[in-house]
Write a structure and sequence with these properties.
The protein has six helices and 13 strands. It has 239 residues and is α+β, with helices and mostly antiparallel strands. The strands form six sheets. Strands 11-12-13 form a three-stranded mixed sheet, with helices on one face.
């Protein structure tokens, strides 16, 4: 009950913004309960600001899709389990400081610092001015992340275990399957995907060096052991 929850100073009764329908529930209280720098920074929801422990504004979003739907937030898989964190570049207020960070770029449309998006550069010179970007003279020409600049077109198929055993806790993550899928999605977000559907047998524009990505699950919730691959889990979208 709410009364029992709030008897513990470490707890609060609140609504999960990612699951409003579930109603209010007992959860860890805000970051103000921490009085020391070390204990504050040990909580991924919190940040030590000079003398106070403040709440990361994105930490109120507790599910990946919900988190990623908020412009300034990103699902951070560097912690286990993953948490919703403020994008690094969105905390930079000055345009000059933004330009000095290789991970960031200044958005004239938003009038703020945002995460680097090489694809936003439509010409070779501004693309080449960024160390992490690479201009490809393909058809069409495009600016892409430097680490993928020399890659040929690739079809990548990822096969993962979806049996009941994969849903056990692994290390600090309470659900092994969710942990694996979080990492795969984080990796896929940076890929130069072609946008072609799975029904396209051959790549339509191999000169772009784009990637097509497919996921296959083996094992089911009712089968504790691995079985043969049962199908494509991308809802018809290879990339």
């Amino acid at each position: 009950s709410e009364a029992v929850c709030e008897q513990d100073t470490r707890c609060q009764f609140a609504t999960d913004l990612c699951d409003v329908a579930a109603g209010r529930k007992c959860e860890l209280a805000g970051c103000s309960v921490y009085q020391l720098n070390g204990e504050c920074n040990a909580d991924p929801r919190c940040t030590w600001d000079a003398t106070l422990c403040t709440m990361n504004p994105c930490s109120q979003y507790t599910a990946e899709l919900c988190c990623d739907s908020v412009t300034e937030c990103s699902w951070d898989t560097s912690t286990s389990p993953a948490t919703c964190q403020l994008k690094m570049c969105y905390s930079i207020a000055l345009q000059s400081a933004c330009g000095q960070n290789p991970e960031c770029m200044w958005s004239a449309g938003e009038d703020r610092c945002v995460d680097l998006d090489c694809g936003a550069y439509a010409e070779a010179c501004p693309c080449a001015n960024r160390d992490k970007c690479f201009w490809k003279n393909g058809m069409p020409a495009q600016c892409t992340l430097a680490r993928y600049g020399m890659c040929p077109l690739m079809d990548v198929a990822v096969v993962f275990d979806g049996s009941t055993r994969s849903r056990d806790a692994y290390g600090r993550h309470p659900d092994g399957l969710i942990g694996v899928l979080e990492q795969l999605r984080a990796w896929a977000k940076g890929l130069p995907l072609s946008g072609e559907g799975y029904a396209v047998a051959d790549a339509a524009s191999p000169a772009t060096g784009a990637t097509r990505l497919s996921f296959l699950q083996f094992g089911t919730d009712s089968n504790g052991s691995a079985s043969t691959a049962t199908g494509n889990a991308t809802a018809g979208a290879l990339s």
